[in-house]
Write a structure and sequence with these properties.
Number of strands: 8
Shape: elongated
Helix content: 55-70%
Structural class: alpha+beta
Strand content: 5-15%
Largest sheet: 4 strands, antiparallel
Strand order of the largest sheet: 2-3-5-6
Distance between the termini: 46 Å
């Protein structure tokens, strides 16, 4: 996409990624494949009809004492076969239930991918803004130190400072130039990550907008995570799928019953001899009951049970991971909020100290190294404040994701939402016949249900939630989050009467 002059918003970036991000596109097609898996499993209840036909040509010559006999002609045979399962002891029932659980789990996987992509967009968008601000700070830092070095060289010529002061300024400038190169490299990396996630290079980016409201308490956040966290929901559907597969394995011990019918027609046309044709129709049933399998069926049942128990433990893993994600995002957001407020105060104080040090140095009250240290403290405070603002925003998005409430629609409300269930409902009953309903009802008789018992201990239902997390710190205002930093070259002194003043720091015509 060619660069344009328009300013891009976070909603624009989310909408672009929602439509074109390859992870999103991939998951949508994978979900369509899962939908077809359900159709294939359900279709086993229906009849199968097949037809075949064959033909041939015969040219035969037979010699004997009486002379030579010729036989020439064509033959053709056609048949139609119909087969209908009536009972499978729950095998197909379990397979259909497993396929349905796979579809539901896949829909949560689509939602998880959407959530991850939206979170990645928030991160790269905020990263570009953060790194742009850091580069501006780095450039200001270099400009201030260049002015400091020019000033000290002039003062050294008249004997106000020594060569040591000049060397200190030059050393600090070299370090700042190296840091600026590193900051510019970080910005280039962030822009590349933006292209990877969003699909185009970042234009001029608007400030970060307000994200959706968070849960009021940590307990509410835990409850939401147990209800909506997509990874936790996926683990639950995985367990349902393996439980249904175990039921299908148990069905292998029972009998199967099917009926079939066949029609056959054969015709022979001979040039010499009699023509003949033959028509035949047959119908029957097949009842099959396994008696001995060398332990294979029981082994498959034990295998399926073990896999289901592993998936029950997977629920506990996913639950603990979800609760830890909530806790981590919660405390990170809280500490970052405090850091933004205190960090702004640190920047203001460091800016005042630097302005004062610079003026005092010009009047011989401070040494060069003291001014350089004050400038370094201001630089560090500004860079850390920019990082803290970034962490506040990213932690907010991560907390929304942890409780399952982060979606593209919540940020970009003008997008056309992809509904993975729409395709499933469209293909769900394709090819279905009334005989499917009959076989479905019969297969429930005496068969194992697709939902087996769930162990509370394995599934982690008795594991407590994290404690002593604490309340969220008050959120800093949007003005504080998006406030532009005062450049170092515009640092001002605050006088006792409340007014402000500036000393020459750097720039054209300054400190010369």
């Amino acid at each position: 996409m060619p660069a344009t002059a328009w300013a891009e918003t976070l909603a624009d970036a989310v909408a672009a990624a929602y439509d074109r991000n390859p992870q999103m596109v991939q998951q949508r097609y994978l979900q369509k494949a899962r939908d077809e898996g359900y159709v294939q499993a359900r279709s086993q209840y229906g009849p199968t009809v097949s037809a075949s036909t064959s033909g041939g040509y015969t040219n035969e010559s037979t010699g004997s004492a009486r002379g030579r006999t010729y036989l020439e002609g064509t033959s053709q045979s056609s048949s139609v076969t119909i087969s209908q399962p009536l009972y499978t002891a729950g095998r197909i029932r379990g397979q259909v239930a497993a396929a349905r659980a796979s579809v539901l789990g896949g829909q949560e996987q689509v939602r998880l991918t959407e959530q991850q992509v939206v979170q990645d967009v928030v991160i790269v968008y905020a990263s570009v803004l953060r790194d742009q601000a850091r580069v501006e700070i780095g450039r200001e830092n270099v400009a201030v130190l260049e002015g400091q070095l020019r000033q000290n060289r002039k003062r050294q010529e008249v004997g106000d400072v020594t060569l040591t002061d000049v060397a200190q300024s030059d050393s600090r400038l070299a370090s700042a130039q190296l840091q600026l190169a590193s900051l510019e490299a970080d910005l280039a990396v962030s822009r590349g990550q933006y292209l990877e996630i969003v699909g185009h290079n970042p234009n001029a980016l608007e400030p970060l907008p307000q994200l959706p409201v968070l849960p009021p308490t940590i307990d509410v956040a835990f409850e939401l995570a147990e209800q909506n966290n997509p990874s936790f929901r996926i683990s639950q559907f995985n367990e349902q799928q393996s439980s249904a597969s175990a039921a299908a394995a148990r069905g292998e011990q029972g009998p199967t019953l099917s009926v079939s019918a066949q029609g056959l027609y054969r015709n022979e046309l001979l040039r010499f001899g009699n023509n003949s044709s033959h028509a035949e129709a047959s119908a029957g049933f097949t009842l099959n009951q396994p008696i001995f399998s060398g332990g294979a069926i029981r082994s498959r049942i034990r295998e399926a049970d073990a896999r289901n128990q592993a998936d029950q433990a997977g629920i506990d893993i996913a639950r603990r991971t979800a609760l830890q994600a909530v806790t981590s995002a919660w405390v990170s957001l809280s500490s970052s909020r405090v850091a933004v407020v205190t960090g702004q105060r640190q920047v203001d104080s460091a800016q005042q100290a630097f302005a004062g040090m610079s003026c005092e140095e010009l009047n011989g009250l401070r040494s060069t190294i003291e001014t350089l240290n004050a400038e370094q403290e201001l630089l560090n405070a500004q860079i850390q404040l920019v990082q803290n603002r970034y962490e506040v925003y990213v932690s907010h998005a991560q907390l929304l994701a942890a409780v399952g409430n982060l979606s593209a629609r919540m940020i970009a409300d003008n997008i056309k939402v992809y509904d993975p269930d729409a395709n499933f409902q469209r293909v769900r009953y394709r090819g279905m016949t009334p005989l499917d309903l009959v076989a479905t009802g019969l297969d429930r008789v005496g068969s194992a249900g697709p939902r087996g018992p769930l162990s509370p201990d394995l599934a982690g239902q008795n594991v407590p939630k994290p404690e002593h997390v604490g309340a969220l710190a008050p959120a800093p205002g949007r003005e504080l989050i998006n406030r532009k930093l005062t450049p170092m070259t515009q640092s001002q002194l605050r006088l006792p009467d409340g007014s402000t003043a500036r000393c020459p720091l750097s720039g054209p015509g300054l400190r010369r």
